[in-house]
Design brief:
- This protein is α+β, with helices and mostly antiparallel strands.
- The protein is built from 2 helices and 5 strands; from the N terminus they run βαββαββ.
- It has a 5-stranded mixed sheet.
- The chain is globular, with a radius of gyration of 12 Å.
Amino acid sequence: MKRFYIVFKGRVQGVGFRWTLINIAQKYNITGFCRNLDNGDVDLEIQGNSDNLDAFLKETLEAKRYIRIDDYSIKSINIVEDERIFDVKY
């Protein structure tokens, strides 16, 4: 089990990106949250097994429609015990 903090930069607000993240997270049994930042970025914390996290990130980076990811940063953080869902924070 691992947990990562990720910040995505690009056209990631107002284009359905957070809802796309929810769908991908459910597909790979990922928990955590995502939220819009005041500077136009989206950050998230994701938690799950290594293979599922890799698949989540790969599919997220390939997201289409109006989403455009120009850059992202990722770092490992502490696991949150008993977390059950992936959700949007406001």
